[in-house]
């Protein structure tokens, strides 16, 4: 693994793949939230607004963690792993609808494999200051 002039380890391909997929997840969550807001009706106004705000906050947090991974910040790994495990649970819960369950599961497994690969783990290790 090579080091940049600032002493950081270069980003390995698996970690770059994880960053891209996490960014896409954040984008999809944002789109779903905006679609929820566009579909608000009088009887579902409070619930729809609350769900949309939650999804937007979740998307922002996921994007922030993706940015952390992009910058090789080790704290970003744990929330991303937790998010993917939750996503696997959602995929299992949606197993009766393969058009939802399969993409959820595939992306979650791909992100987990990429972020937990030895190269990614090494890149996210805190660097000792000598």
TrEMBL record:
Alphabetically ordered keywords of this record: Membrane, Transmembrane, Transmembrane helix
Membrane is among the record's keywords: yes
Spans through the membrane: 12-35, 47-70, 100-124
Name of the molecule in the record: Integral membrane protein
Record organism: Nocardioides terrae
Lineage, opening ranks: Bacteria, Bacillati, Actinomycetota, Actinomycetes, Propionibacteriales
